Amino acid sequence: xxxxVNGKFHEVDVEDDMPLLWxxxxxxxxxGPKYGxxxxxxxxxxVHVDGVAVRSCQLAAGDVIGDVTTxxxxxxxxxxxxxxxxKPKQQPPPPKPTPRSTPAENAAxxxxxxxxxxxxx
Length: 121
Hints:
Layout: E1 2-5, E2 8-11, H1 20-27, E3 46-49, E4 52-55, E5 67-69, E6 75-76, E7 79-80, H2 82-85, H3 103-120
Parallel strand pairs: 1-5
Antiparallel strand pairs: 1-2, 3-4, 3-5, 6-7
């Protein structure tokens, strides 16, 4: 069976019903996807098949149609893929305090503020 994994074609001699996770780890030596729960709940075995996230512990190797991308195929620290590199350069400014809803509330707030300042002084 032929598989395209991380942009490279591999010929593997395995049963069609062998989970993709074991093909990746045992046959190809790709250890990024991990065995976690074995029932496709924890996400430790997640890979992308043609850009769609799938749990490789429950996907038979014979059912794979498309390119498989593992964590190793997402890039290196010096050449990160654009979605991973997209991060804000700085934090957005904090939100401005909301104004009081009525003039009476504004006046009451000002009086309370003045009273607390007078107590401190």
